[in-house]
């Protein structure tokens, strides 16, 4: 069904289509019997798919990547499509509109997207309230899902004060999420990627870990990294994870590279992060490098260019414990989730 609708949807602005689809998905799930029908069609329930990673039990290893649901709008709906976990955000302490529109562009010839959204979100208070409401809902009781909180800094916060923004998001979400992801790798917030350097990154992660350890329950903290890091920088990442004791890494975010693309030059000149099929090999390379360099000492969530069950399997074979979808989900539709899980069962 989705593949029949996709040519129509792809005629319109990507951001408008996103909100159109999510609004109607919510309507379907609110209609009497709609949520149950969605689960009957999409869910692949099998104990063999369960994974326990950084102390959390995932009903299957296929998750929704951050960026799709920044404000906790469709948690139950994504769970009903078969995702084993959903990562919400990136969220910032204060609401912010993000970058001027248009800010998302399709590259159908490459199976890719370029986005420069700029952490547009309603702020951490709204997200925390929505997750708390979901936790109390009948939807969560019928089909619970692991929830991650992807946290970032506001655009106007100087890098030297960035840690305060991460602390605010961490503290506000602590009671409602299952794990955290520190996002310092988006190319769409000026100067953010500078926080991937060893000294500022160690400061942020150590500070969050100190707050984490003061609580009775610790929340796993992961670091999301860019695919554009050199091997020397990846060596630093391994050392940082081991020294700070955080739970693991998400590899990878979008890339600023435009190499080897078939799309028109006009769209290739758009600023922003590239995601989708052009990232498939590079993200898998990063996963494999981290897994080998660390001797598998920490879990990795693989994301980037997963458009088929084979793509997902390659990332798992390279050393990922779990995988996430975003651009592949947009191009292939919700059937991709089930196809991956069914292939894993075989």
TrEMBL record:
It is found in: Cell membrane; Membrane. Pathway: Pyrimidine metabolism; UMP biosynthesis via de novo pathway; orotate from (S)-dihydroorotate (quinone route): step 1/1. It comes from the Bacteria. FMN binds at residues 66-70, 90, 150, 183, 224, 252, 276, 305, 326-327. Keywords: Cell membrane, Flavoprotein, FMN, Membrane, Oxidoreductase, Pyrimidine biosynthesis. Its cofactor is FMN. Binds 1 FMN per subunit. Substrate binds at residues 70, 115-119, 183, 188, 253-254. It holds the Pfam family DHO_dh. PROSITE patterns: DHODEHASE_1, DHODEHASE_2. InterPro entries: Aldolase_TIM, DHO_dehydrogenase, Dihydroorotate_DH_1_2, Dihydroorotate_DH_2, Dihydroorotate_DH_cat, Dihydroorotate_DH_CS. Its EC number is 1.3.5.2. One of its GO terms (cellular component) is plasma membrane. The active site is at 186 (nucleophile). It is a peripheral membrane protein. It catalyses: (S)-dihydroorotate + a quinone = orotate + a quinol. Residues 49-344 form the Dihydroorotate dehydrogenase catalytic domain. Monomer. NCBIfam families: PRK05286.1-2 (NF003645), PRK05286.2-5 (NF003652), pyrD_sub2 (TIGR01036). Belongs to the dihydroorotate dehydrogenase family. Type 2 subfamily. Catalyzes the conversion of dihydroorotate to orotate with quinone as electron acceptor. This is Dihydroorotate dehydrogenase (quinone). It comes from Mucilaginibacter galii.
